[in-house]
Amino acid sequence: MSLTSTSASAPGKIILFGEHAVVYGHPAIAVPLAAVRTLAEARPAERGAGLVLHALDVGQRLRVTWEAEPSPWFDALIYPAQLALRALEAPIPDLTLRVRSTIPIASGLGSGAALAAAIIRALGQALGRPFPAEQLNALVYEVEKRHHGTPSGIDNTVIVYEQPVYFVRGTPPQPFAIAAPLTLLVADSGHPSPTRETVADVRKLYQAEQERIGALFEQIGRIVREARAAIESGEVGALGALMNANQAALRQLNVSSPVLERLCAAAREAGALGAKLSGGGRGGNIIALVDAKNAPDVRRALQTAGAVRIIETVVAPSTS
Ligand code: MEV
After folding, report:
1. What is the CATH number that goes with domain 6-175?
2. How do the pLDDT tens digits run along the chain, 320 residues long?
3. What are the residue ranges spanned by the domains of the chain?
4. 155, 201, 291, 297: which one is catalytic?
């Protein structure tokens, strides 16, 4: 087998509207977050060395075998490599794969999907058979299932295609136009919160109260459709109100928390057009929609309210 040195990467993501309801077939909107990324570098190793993964940020050095293990490191690092090799019908190659990431773990920014995308991409390239986007997306979705049971598929889709998506579970991602730039502050609460847990809790709540929770999902679906129309027509002010409405519905789904509420309130009081949690919730990140003149005030207010890291990102208008 001829092997090449290569590197591959994948971005983080933010969900603008529709998390959780998207698991139940309602639409959601997500955009890539290029300011944080996972990078995987593959280097051929000496004969017989096997495939060794170094996860540099977490000090893990793991040898890939065909065995399955019930451990989070297996799910995050080895399972994606196994899936890639199985899909290529390749034996375990003699390679070293060094992985590093600036995407915080369990914070709603897609760290698991980005890690899987970068590992699978790098292995395909190193073996001289790069994965087409559609196949890569399907493989990363398999990894997402291991991470949180019943993923909608939105995280792998936005991360693999690295484009804003209007997403409905089980259908191809719909591209949509962005009429005006959207400036967002992404503020980390500093409290990790695994998506697996919030998704499972929402499921329990839905099973216990199908009518009330089903109606909340419907309401979120309406908000997402209105948000798409506002993004397509450049009505940025309307989007802020829709973010606040989405956050109110997420609170009723019991996936907000005092710390997330405090950050959202601080952003709004400082002049943000709207604010909501993004991703699984309880902890992780909130997003605040700002305009150029109030961005510094909102940033300061978020810091004072306890945000441990703030990333400013602009969702740029589409060119086509
Ligand atoms: C996680 O980023 C988004 C959720 O809606 C779960 C999913 O869609 O799989 C909470």
Report:
1. 3.30.230.10
2. 789 999 999 999 999 999 999 999 999 999 999 999 999 999 999 999 999 999 999 899 999 999 998 888 899 999 999 999 999 999 999 999 999 999 999 899 999 999 999 999 999 999 999 999 999 999 999 999 998 889 999 999 999 999 999 999 999 988 889 999 999 999 999 999 999 999 999 999 999 999 999 999 999 999 999 999 999 999 999 999 999 999 999 999 999 999 999 999 999 999 999 999 999 999 999 999 999 889 999 999 999 999 999 999 999 998 65
3. 6-175, 182-315
4. 155
Nearest protein CA to atom 8 of ligand 1, as residue: 152
Q: Which of 109, 150, 155 for mutating ligand 1's site (highest number of atoms within 8 Å of CB)? A: 155
Q: What is the pTM of this model?
A: 0.96
Nearest CA to ligand 1 atom 1: 279
| 196 C-alpha to ligand 1 centroid (Å) | 9
Centre of ligand 1 from the C-alpha of residue 199, in Å: 7
* Residue 36, C-beta contacts closer than 8 angstroms, at least 6 positions apart: 11, 12, 101, 102, 103, 104, 109, 311
Ligand 1 atom closest to the CA of 279, numbered from 1: 2
Taking the CA of residue 20 as reference, the ligand 1 atom at the shortest distance is 5
Which listed CATH number (3.30.70.890, 1.20.1250.20, 1.10.3720.10, 3.10.180.10) goes with 182-315?
3.30.70.890
